[in-house]
Design a protein that fits this description.
By secondary structure, this protein is mainly beta. The chain has one domain. Helices cover about 10% and strands about 40% of the residues. It has one helix and four strands, in the order E-E-H-E-E. It has a four-stranded antiparallel beta sheet with strand order 2-1-3-4, covered by helices on one side. Strand 3 and strand 4 form a beta hairpin.
Length: about 80
């Protein structure tokens, strides 16, 4: 079952600059989806009238870990 969410991009003056409506199966999956918008600034995530979280740009996903190179392969 999915629920309706919105991610609001918040301007420096605290006013919503834009919004993205989307569906997610849980609050956690909604937050994971909304993190992509933090590259543009602070994002508020709402499910109807319930504020889920405020995500700062610093909370965006970290870079994936680098794969280590294997040294020599024995034959």
């Amino acid at each position: 079952m999915t629920h309706q969410y919105r991610a609001y991009l918040v301007g420096e003056n605290g006013v919503f600059r834009s919004a993205e409506a989307f569906e997610a199966t849980s609050d956690d999956s909604a937050l994971a989806f909304a993190r992509q918008f933090t590259r543009h600034g602070k994002v508020e995530v709402w499910q109807l009238g319930r504020k889920i979280a405020v995500l700062d740009a610093a909370q965006s996903w970290p870079s994936p870990p680098r794969q280590s190179r294997s040294t020599l392969t024995r034959q």
